[in-house]
């Protein structure tokens, strides 16, 4: 049987950097262009030195965008780099071995590229189109990997061969089209 438990002694530390540079403020001919950067770093432990599995790996997102001066349309390209989840930062609560054992299935480092564009054809209407995972990269997020259990029927894969792991991978290249109407 599995049950979530709230821990009394949990400690999470970390930081986030989120920045955007409007290039037109530096060089007039680049008006509308921007560079962006976001980085997150976290560490978490419970009851002294047991790793906290909910902590995501270090992530960096680099962006280059263009926004038409009247905000009628814009386009952004993002490059996301995610660090591998290290064994020392995981804890297999179901392990039958003594001591703190790492989780077997962990996410490797990966990077991906997303392209998002929008247009505002009339007041209060925004149409957005995105191509995500533009390079069609096969990757496993830590959030998916940590949900793999060594027992039961839900989220189970063959622990010796890895059969069934493919269903935990994120989608390849995918598309999104949306319309927003504000009142």
UniProtKB/TrEMBL annotation:
**Gene Ontology CC terms:** cell outer membrane
Q: Which domain of life is it from?
A: Bacteria
Motif TonB C-terminal box, which positions? 166-183
Keywords in UniProt for this one? Answer: Cell outer membrane, Membrane, Receptor, Repeat, Signal, TonB box, Transmembrane, Transmembrane beta strand, Transport
Extract one GO molecular function annotation from the record.
Answer: siderophore uptake transmembrane transporter activity
The residues covered by the TonB-dependent receptor-like beta-barrel domain are 2-134
Q: Which GO terms describe its biological process?
A: siderophore transmembrane transport
Bilayer disposition of the protein? Multi-pass membrane protein
Q: Where in the cell is it found?
A: Cell outer membrane
User: What PANTHER family is this protein classified in?
Assistant: HEMOGLOBIN AND HEMOGLOBIN-HAPTOGLOBIN-BINDING PROTEIN 1-RELATED, TONB-DEPENDENT OUTER MEMBRANE RECEPTOR
Family note: Belongs to the TonB-dependent receptor family. Hemoglobin/haptoglobin binding protein subfamily.
Protein name stated in the entry = TonB-dependent receptor-like beta-barrel domain-containing protein
Q: Which organism is it from?
A: Haemophilus influenzae R3021
């Amino acid at each position: 049987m599995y049950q979530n438990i709230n821990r009394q002694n949990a400690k999470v530390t970390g930081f986030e950097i989120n920045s955007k540079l409007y290039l037109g403020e530096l060089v007039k001919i680049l008006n509308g262009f921007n560079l962006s950067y976001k980085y997150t770093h976290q560490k978490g432990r419970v009851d002294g030195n047991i790793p906290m599995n909910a902590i995501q790996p270090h992530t960096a997102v680099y962006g280059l965008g263009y926004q038409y001066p009247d905000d009628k349309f814009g386009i952004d390209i993002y490059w996301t780099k995610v660090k591998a989840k290290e064994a020392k930062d995981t804890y297999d609560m179901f392990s039958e071995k003594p001591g703190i054992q790492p989780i077997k299935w962990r996410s490797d480092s990966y990077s991906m590229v997303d392209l998002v564009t929008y247009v505002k054809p009339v007041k209060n209407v925004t149409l957005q189109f995105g191509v995500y995972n533009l390079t069609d990269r096969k990757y496993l997020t830590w959030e998916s990997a940590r949900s793999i259990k060594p027992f039961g029927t839900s989220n189970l894969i063959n622990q010796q061969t890895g059969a069934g792991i493919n269903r935990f991978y994120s989608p390849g290249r995918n598309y999104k089209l949306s319309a927003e109407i504000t009142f």
